[in-house]
C-alpha cells in the first residue's frame, strides 16, 4: 500500500534546479519511497499535477497544511480532512465537506448572488483563515477544488436546482 505524504519527508530544492530535474526527483521519490514529495503549496513554479489522483493528493496536502499566509489551515475547522463534522474557533459545529462539490454553484442569500466552489474557497481562506487565496486559475486552487470534488464522489449533482 503506498504511503501518503506525512509532512516529514520534504525535498528541499535549490531555486536553480530545472523543472525537469524537479520532476525526475519526484519520480525517484515515488519509486524509492512509495510517496509523492510535495513542495510547499505556495512555492514559486510548482508545476500542475500530472494526474487527477496527484491533484487530489496535493489538494489534500494544501487543505491540511497551508495557512495561505493566515493564522490557520482548512483542517483547523474542517477536521479529519473535512470528512467529519467540524467546528469553528468559537465551537460552533459545521457540517462535513463530504459531497460539498455537488452543492455548487449555489445561491448565497447573504451575498445576493450565485457563488461557485472556487469563490466559496476564496471566502473561507480570506475570512476564516485570514489568508490570501490562490488565484482562481492556479495549480493550488485547482488542487483544492479537485480534493473537495473527490470528497463528493457518488454525490448527486444539481440537487440545488428545484
From TrEMBL:
<keyword id="KW-0479">Metal-binding</keyword>
<dbReference type="GO" id="GO:0046872">
    <property type="term" value="F:metal ion binding"/>
</dbReference>
<dbReference type="InterPro" id="IPR009056">
    <property type="entry name" value="Cyt_c-like_dom"/>
</dbReference>
<dbReference type="Pfam" id="PF21342">
    <property type="entry name" value="SoxA-TsdA_cyt-c"/>
</dbReference>
<feature type="domain" description="Cytochrome c">
    <location>
        <begin position="54"/>
        <end position="152"/>
    </location>
</feature>
<keyword id="KW-0349">Heme</keyword>
<protein>
    <submittedName>
        <fullName>Cytochrome C</fullName>
    </submittedName>
</protein>
<keyword id="KW-0408">Iron</keyword>
<dbReference type="GO" id="GO:0009055">
    <property type="term" value="F:electron transfer activity"/>
</dbReference>
<dbReference type="InterPro" id="IPR036909">
    <property type="entry name" value="Cyt_c-like_dom_sf"/>
</dbReference>
<dbReference type="GO" id="GO:0020037">
    <property type="term" value="F:heme binding"/>
</dbReference>
Amino acid at each position: 500500500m503506498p504511503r501518503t505524504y506525512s509532512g516529514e519527508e520534504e525535498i528541499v530544492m535549490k531555486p536553480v534546479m530545472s523543472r525537469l530535474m524537479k520532476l525526475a526527483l519526484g519520480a525517484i521519490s515515488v519509486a524509492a519511497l512509495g510517496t509523492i514529495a510535495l513542495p510547499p503549496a505556495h512555492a514559486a513554479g510548482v508545476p500542475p499535477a500530472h494526474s487527477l489522483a496527484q491533484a487530489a493528493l496535493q489538494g489534500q496536502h494544501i487543505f491540511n497544511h497551508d495557512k495561505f499566509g493566515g493564522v490557520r489551515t482548512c483542517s483547523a475547522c474542517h477536521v479529519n480532512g473535512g470528512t467529519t463534522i467540524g467546528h469553528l474557533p468559537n465551537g460552533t459545529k459545521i457540517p462535513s465537506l463530504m459531497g460539498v462539490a455537488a452543492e455548487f454553484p449555489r445561491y448565497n442569500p447573504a451575498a445576493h448572488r450565485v457563488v461557485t466552489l472556487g469563490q466559496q474557497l476564496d471566502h473561507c481562506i480570506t475570512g476564516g483563515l485570514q489568508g490570501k487565496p490562490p488565484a482562481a486559475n492556479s495549480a493550488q486552487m485547482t488542487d483544492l477544488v479537485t480534493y473537495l470534488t473527490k470528497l463528493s464522489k457518488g454525490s448527486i449533482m444539481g440537487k440545488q436546482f428545484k
